[in-house]
Amino acid sequence: MPEFLSAGSLAPEWFIFFICLALGAVIGVLAGMLGIGGGLVAVPVLTYLLSDVLGISPFSAITIAIATSLSTIILTGLSSSRAHFKLGNLQRDIILFCGVGIALGATLGAQTASVLDGRLLKGIFAGLVILVALQMIFGKKKATEFTYNAFILVVAGLITGFISALMGIGGGAILVPLLVLFNVDIRKAIGCAAFSGLVIALFGTANYVYTGWSLPDLPAYSLGYVYLPAAIGIVATSVFTAPYGAKFGQNLDTAKLKKVFAVLLVIVSIRMLIGLSE
To answer: Of the candidates 30, 206, 220, 252, which lies 20 to 30 Å from 228 by C-alpha distance?
Structure first.
């Protein structure tokens, strides 16, 4: 790492900001191309940065990392959703009924995460990431004889919103397989998941800001649980790279790439689980 970007030569918040600029560029591509929102990458990286650079306990840093990751999906999801709208990948009935369930689920998920012990939350996050990654590796994105209705979409949104707010992710890795299961075209499923990530981020972030607003031990430059230097750094680049990711995904078979990415997630999650006993 260049000397001017070393932690010792910069104020901690600036060091994290510059690292998050690079992180945001990667997250934007992933959000647009794979429909995953980027939180699966952001949360482990932010947890490490907050604990290593700011000296926050890893079990306290995980809640801040999840909230911060979720906040970045607001603009990233907006950018990705606009790109998918132009590509014709948004389906009105899906985003309407899923959105209702997601709004409630994201609220409940953020409220739950804010009261969980940090060690437990970190374990839940790592465990859920492994499950999501295994689905990405072994899950079959093939339509079935089932078809969706309003009730199914609301329930799917509720589940997606709750888990996503608890993990700080956009929900694509959960919602896309569910939609494909009910005969939704894969491109439209990814587009609708990108829009749903925006809803998750809005409601989840609002609750993380509210629940962390009056807490005294959060780092400087925080808005509730949201750590602004990291959030701004990620957003500053991700909003520009998300549309490119959507275009890449439109013309690229992402199945193999997604499996490689999922394997890396499993490795990171196992490392986080091991860290619980350290």
So the answer is: 30
Can you tell me the mean pLDDT for 207-230? 92
Confidence band of 229 (pLDDT split at 50, 70, 90): very high
Rounded to an integer, what distance in angstroms lies between the CA atom of residue 222 and that of residue 261? 31
Q: Provide the 8-state DSSP code for 6.
A: S
- Whole-model pTM? 0.83
Residues of the chain above pLDDT 70, percent? 84
Categorize the per-residue pLDDT at 202 as very low, low, confident or very high, splitting at 50, 70 and 90. Answer: very high
- The residue length of the chain stands at 278
CB of 102 closer than 8 Å to CB of 153: no
Nearest to 68 by CA among 249, 269, 275, 238: 238
Tokens of 125: 């996050």
Query: Is 39 in contact with 201 (CB distance < 8 Å)?
Result: no
Residues 6+ apart with CB under 8 A from 242: 28, 29, 31, 32, 76, 79, 80, 83
What lies within 8 Å, CB to CB, of 99 at 6+ separation is 157, 195, 196, 199
